[in-house]
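I have been asked to look over a protein record a colleague put together. This is what I was given:
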Amino acid sequence: MLALTIILALSLSLYLVSGILAPKRKGREKTTTYACGERIRLGSLKITVTLYEYLTYFIVLDSAAILVMFIALSLTGFDTYITVLVYLAIILVSALVLRGEG
C-alpha cells in the first residue's frame, strides 16, 4: 500500500509540475489548420472519433478488470479490499477523465 501511495503522489506531482513548466504561448502558426502539406479550411475537414472513444474505453476497462483480478489474487486479508477499492476508484476517475466529465 505504501508503494501505491508513493506512485500516486509522484504521478500527481509530475502532472502538476509539467502543467506549470509547459510553455503556454501559442502563435498564429501553431493554431492554423495544416494537413498533408496543404492548408485547408477548418469547416471542410470532418473527423469522427466515436469509434476511437469506444476503443479507448474498452482498453481502459478491460485492462482494469485484469489488473483488479491479479491484485485480488495476490493479496490476502483486509488490505485486499482496501487496495481493490483504491484501484477501482482510480479506474473510475480515469474513465470520467476520458469521457470529459472529470
